[in-house]
Write a structure and sequence with these properties.
2 domains; single chain; 6 helices; mainly alpha
Length: 161
């Protein structure tokens, strides 16, 4: 038995590591089922969250009304892009589960899924980037510096407060 472990230690370690990654990934996918940003978020729920984020950013960056509108437009474009990437599915987890439902990983289906998502990203990204550019370009140099500082982690941009 000792020789078995000595000869196959790499295989055992990689197997355990692989199993841990798969189990962790699947549990992470299922952890936030009822969260507001789940697959089934409605336009109204998103609008409420977007408004909260715009108000929060407005207070940190001293945004005027026009800049708030541009930031809200960025949020709307991101929501549209997200919905397009999600497609018609109401359960994205089931889509992933279907890849491993049989005795072999469904590589063809996985590749088609990736190609669909990539195509959507390629077609929707220019609109989202244009909205983001319009917002950023509307900021004065002081506000732009605040954004850069916040993105660097100074001042707690991602802290809930």
């Amino acid at each position: 038995m000792k020789n078995f472990f000595q000869r196959n230690i790499r295989r055992i370690l990689f197997g355990v590591l692989g199993f841990t990654l798969i189990a962790g990934g699947l549990s992470a996918c299922g952890h936030h089922r009822d969260h507001v940003w789940g697959a089934n978020v409605t336009q109204e729920q998103f609008a409420q969250q977007r408004d909260k984020m715009v108000d929060r950013a407005a207070s940190k960056l001293d945004l005027n009304a026009e800049q708030k509108k541009l930031l809200a437009a960025v949020g709307d474009k991101m929501f549209e892009q997200r919905k397009a990437v999600m497609g018609q599915t109401t359960d994205p987890r089931a889509e992933i589960k279907s890849l491993i439902a049989g005795p072999k990983f469904d590589t063809a289906k996985a590749q088609a899924l990736i190609m669909d998502k990539t195509t959507v990203l390629q077609t929707k990204s220019p609109e989202t980037l244009a909205a983001l550019a319009a917002f950023y370009d509307s900021l004065n140099p002081t506000q732009q510096q605040k954004v850069r500082d916040l993105m660097e982690g100074h001042h707690g941009w991602f802290n809930h407060g």
